[in-house]
Amino acid sequence: MLAEGAMTRTTALVFCGGGPATAPLPALEDPLVVAADSGVIEAHRRGFRVDLLVGDLDSAPPEEVKRLTSGGGRIRVYPPDKDAIDLELALEAAGAEGATRVVVVGGSTGRLDHLVGNALVVAQARFASLEIDAVFGAARLHVIRDRRALRGEPGELVSLFAVGGVAHGVRTEGLRWQLDGGDLRPGSTLGVSNEFVERVASVAVGEGVVLAIRPGPEVGGGAR
Known about the structure:
- Helices cover 17% and strands 32% of the residues.
- By secondary structure, the protein is α/β, with parallel strands linked by helices.
- The strands form two sheets. A ten-stranded mixed β-sheet has the order 4-3-2-1-5-6-7-14-9-12, sandwiched between helices. The protein has a four-stranded antiparallel β-sheet with strand order 8-13-10-11, with no helix packed on it.
- Strand 2 (32-36), helix 1 and strand 3 (52-55) form a beta-alpha-beta unit.
- The model is unreliable at 1-5 (pLDDT under 50).
């Protein structure tokens, strides 16, 4: 719940665990900053004042929690035996506080199941009202419903994956291998290792959800 008289901020930075993120963050003006448990470490490392910390706090260092409360941040504690991961709770909190655009920030050096879980959480149907991008380590992710424009460099890799069911009517522009209204099925490698041929590419989805993953310059290329 918002504090009385507080102004709603429609953009949020949500920090989760997994180590540092090395890809650059988009420029955001006065975002709401939410930390999912140990995400408070990365938020403070980058110099952000955390507005809200959520989770069971099993991995948030006490000194970081004290720093947060000293700066006026709020804490929302959940029991360890909860039915959602901390990132999911943080996204719920960001939406409840009025955010409509969210940038998730985390690392890629932790457990593989956590990383996969985080990628799947951001694409959940329950967060369809949010425009979500993510930075995990050197990689950037974009959740695409309807249509998104992606800015990149010619030659930069991007892979497209259907999440949560078949993505129908997928169309791309500005990528080397064009998709022209066909279906992209979960588990299909059709969208793997595409690449930018223009500085602005677009991905449109008639029905369903596509996750665009850009592995970043630290990752070598590979054949389709």
